[in-house]
Write a structure and sequence with these properties.
Blueprint: H1 3-7, E1 25-30, H2 34-50, E2 58-63, H3 69-76, E3 82-90, H4 96-115, E4 119-126, H5 129-134, H6 143-160
Parallel strand pairs: 1-2, 1-3, 3-4
Bound molecules: 5-nitro-6-ribityl-amino-2,4(1H,3H)-pyrimidinedione.
Amino acid sequence: MTSSDQKTELSTGHKPALDGSGLHVAVVCGRFNDVITNALLDGCRQGLRAHGVDAADIDVVWAPGAFELPLVAKHLAAQFDAVVLLGAVVRGDTPHFDFVAGECAAGAARVALDSGTPVVFGVLTTDTVAQAEERSGPGPSNKGYEAAETAIEMATLLRSLPSR
Ligand code: INI
């Protein structure tokens, strides 16, 4: 790559240092499988706080289940720098899983594109509760923690890009 190529890159290909100071973040949690989603919420708060988001700038909203999360995100998107969705969809034996998980993911993407606000998909989709527990344990491998980092990266990335 030449130095003139580098000048055309608007952000780095490496994971950037994260600075969440001044960001307002909404976290929307599903109550379904709430032992898991509370553990994701703990991880998400830790991730946001670890990167400088003020505790007073984190708003948490609970909804019945993963299916409802995108509608809440739509309601909040204009008021926050990022919206994190936290849910736990466990496959079990019915096709319900595919509808709930699929509609949640599609809805999250739609709200993000329609609103211009990052909507982060911190929703576990697993075959078993044990797999969901593995991904919501303490530390930075908690998917809620990872979602917090994605929210900060996307909010600061969008702020840094030239507007149209
Ligand atoms: N909601 C979840 O968040 N996780 C699940 O595993 C789940 N299952 O398995 O059914 C689930 N269902 C509820 C769904 O999100 C809605 O709340 C419900 O269908 C009412 O719209």
